Structure formats: structure tokens, C-alpha cells
Amino acid sequence: MASILVADDDADIRDLVAYKLTQSGHQVTVVDDGLSALKAVREHTVDLALLDIRMPGMSGLDVCRELRATPETESLPVILLTARSQELDIETGFAAGADDYIIKPFSPRELSSRVQAVLARATR
């Protein structure tokens, strides 16, 4: 399956997401902030990044923008995972380059389905 980076400062969310994705057969790397997410993407092969928007140091939006601005990672699929649910927040996420936007709280099944859909689109 795929190698997925999960970046979220909430340990409970991180553990839940990692568990569900591992259960689905993916290899998961977890980090708790944006700078660590960038470092992980640069040091490891990653097929998809799942980023919380609100993280210490560097937000998921900033990580997404940085990934899109770098030729080596400009096409890396990115899903934003956040409690921010206002229309403007969602627009901002997609404008930053996200491929999908999942609002907390979320269903683990929905998360798995959306990850599969984004990965499928990326391989076409």
C-alpha cells in the first residue's frame, strides 16, 4: 500500500488516524508539528501527507504551501484534517494546494475512503 505521513499535534487524533491507516495496510509515519512534517517528507518517500491545520511552529497550511512550492514535492497529495469548518477556511485550504479537506470530528471509515480516493487520483 502507500506510505502516509500524519502530522497532528493532538496525540489522540494522531493515534486514531495512524491505527486506521495501518489497519488499511498503509505504512504510517507520525509527527506532531509542521517543521517535523517537512523534514519527514524530505527524508522519506511519502505517497500522501495528512496535515492538521493548527500545529505549533508551522501550520498545516504553511506546510502545504511549502510542499507545493518545491519541485520535488509539488505533486505530493495532501489532505488537510482540521476542526476549522467555515466556508472561508475550506477555501483557504484548497487555495493552499490541498487535494482534500476533512473536518473534525470525522468517521474513521470516511477518512480511509478519502485517503483511498486521493491516492487513486494521484496514480492516474
Describe what you observe in this structure.
The structure is a single chain. This protein has 124 residues and is an alpha/beta fold. It is 47% helix and 19% strand. The chain is built from five helices and five strands; from the N terminus they run E-H-E-H-E-H-E-H-E-H. The chain has a five-stranded parallel beta sheet, sandwiched between helices. The chain starts with a strand and ends with a helix.
Overall structural class, as computed from helix and strand content, comes to: alpha/beta
Helix content: 40-55%
Average pLDDT rating: 96
Instruction: Let me know the largest β-sheet.
Output: 5 strands, parallel
**Which radius of gyration do the C-alpha atoms yield?**
13 Å
Order of helices and strands: EHEHEHEHEH
Low-pLDDT runs of 5+ residues are none
Strand proportion: 15-25%
The number of helical segments is: 5
Number of strands: 5
3D shape: globular
Q: Which strand order spans the largest sheet, edge to edge or round the barrel?
A: 2-1-3-4-5
Distance between the termini: 16 Å
